[in-house]
Design a protein that fits this description.
single chain; alpha+beta; 7 helices; 419 residues; eight-stranded mixed sheet
Length: 419
């Protein structure tokens, strides 16, 4: 399986973006660790073809129609599903192996993370479990203080959540550049294997609020990049004919910047309306023609150049929040020992009352952060230029043409991902 790679993005006056990439998430010029190398070898030797019924084609109504395990007896060479999909108050807590996840809003979403501390995403991509901002659905709860900045985007074709996180608090090893999770994988069984995704965000939503009693929709196309103390997750509306295009799973080597272009401003918490992004990999060149980028296989070596810069879609009606007002349910939750809760906390009311009444309208590229990849390596920018992020995030400070003209700006970003 392809892996995200460490990336050196040099933005110079020529507007060229040069990306030096080494295989399997290594530092440029580095060598594979035995642990990582053995993981890749195990996957390659195990691969036995695509599932007769792939995960993204399996449909279950939530909550009553969800089986105990979606892939409990696959016969696949990489084994069976390690967690379960029927999750409730009896499974909730720090030991939960729930592999059913949810994305609704800025204060109600989940991320995929390892079940054991100090794990490398590349080694456990098929075994990740749900870590969520709200208790009540049988998952693990993201510890208090882990989320450092979050932007929620509601677009016509998808919902996206991007941001910053202390990844060690959800069991990802410090410095791990991470990887990609999606419902496909080489064998069609998904990463995590058997994982399910649901949302109420495509139902009765008025003024950005989900109405009580809104039905759950199973999301069959999504992707989630984790690593480098940053994250992005996008869930695509299954009623949209281009869901699979907006939630592509073939660009794992170029990270969040190209898959979920957004603001990525550390310390900021906001919920916005957004235009649709262009399909990942699709871009308009300098000649005005629309093209599709083809990600090269790792066998061809490092990615040395990318022909385009991702365009951050226009966002509007952005409502700012504070972390304390959003994640009241996380109070008292710690990485070492989370307190099991059996009731779903509703923080939307507290969120609304604490949020500023002012909204902002933001055009594509109007921000102060330039980002690329999924990594824990921070970029040093020129004076008066904000620090760069590292999960493959796009710039919000300038349009791509201005970004390319910033002489001497070098962003060193380590990127890691896996299907």
């Amino acid at each position: 399986m392809p892996r995200l790679n460490n990336v050196l993005v040099a933005l110079a006056a020529s507007s060229a973006a040069v990306v030096a990439v080494s295989a399997h998430g290594l530092a440029v010029g580095g060598t594979a660790t035995s642990k990582h190398a053995s993981k890749v070898k195990r996957q390659d030797s195990c691969y036995s073809g695509y599932a007769e019924t792939p995960l993204y084609q399996k449909k279950y109504s939530y909550p009553n129609g969800v089986p105990y395990q979606v892939e409990g007896n696959t016969g696949a060479c990489r084994g069976n599903q390690v967690g379960y999909n029927q999750c409730n108050s009896t499974t909730e807590g720090p030991g939960s192996m729930c592999q059913t996840s949810f994305v609704n809003s800025i204060d109600d979403f989940c991320l995929w993370g390892p079940s054991e501390p100090n794990s490398l995403v590349a080694n456990v991509e098929g075994e990740m479990v749900a870590w969520c901002t709200k208790p009540g659905r049988g998952t693990r709860v993201i510890p208090e203080g882990a989320l450092k900045g979050v932007q929620f985007l509601r677009a016509p074709a998808y919902l996206a959540v991007t941001g910053f996180i202390d990844q060690t608090m959800i069991n990802i090893a410090a410095g791990d550049s991470g990887g990609e999770e999606d419902p496909h994988g080489a064998d069609g069984l998904g990463n995590p294997m058997g994982s399910l995704m649901y949302s109420q965000g495509f139902g009765n939503v008025q003024g950005g609020k989900i109405a009580d009693g809104t039905a759950w929709t199973q999301v069959v196309e999504w992707h989630n990049f984790m690593g480098g103390d940053q994250f992005c997750i996008k869930v695509c509306d299954p009623s949209n004919s281009n869901a699979a295009n907006y939630c592509q799973h073939i660009y794992d080597r170029i990270g969040c910047a190209y898959n979920v272009p957004a603001a990525y401003v550390n310390g900021t918490f906001e919920s916005c309306e957004s235009d649709n992004q262009m399909f990942p990999g699709v871009y308009v060149g300098d000649n005005g023609k629309t093209s599709t980028y083809t990600q090269p296989p790792e066998s061809l070596g490092a990615i040395s150049t990318l022909p385009y810069q991702p365009v951050v879609p226009q966002s509007s009606s952005c409502t700012p929040y504070t972390s304390a007002s959003l994640y009241t349910a996380l109070a008292g939750q710690t990485a070492a020992a989370q307190t099991t809760s059996t009731s779903a906390a509703s923080s939307s009311a507290a969120t609304s009352s604490s949020a500023s009444s002012s909204s902002t309208t933001r055009r594509s590229g109007e921000s102060s952060a330039a980002s690329s990849g999924a990594s824990g390596v921070r970029a040093n920018a020129a004076a008066n230029t904000s620090a760069a992020s590292s999960t493959g995030a796009a710039s919000r400070s300038t349009s791509s043409s201005v970004m390319g003209a910033v002489a001497g700006l070098a962003l060193f970003v380590a990127v890691g991902a896996a299907l």
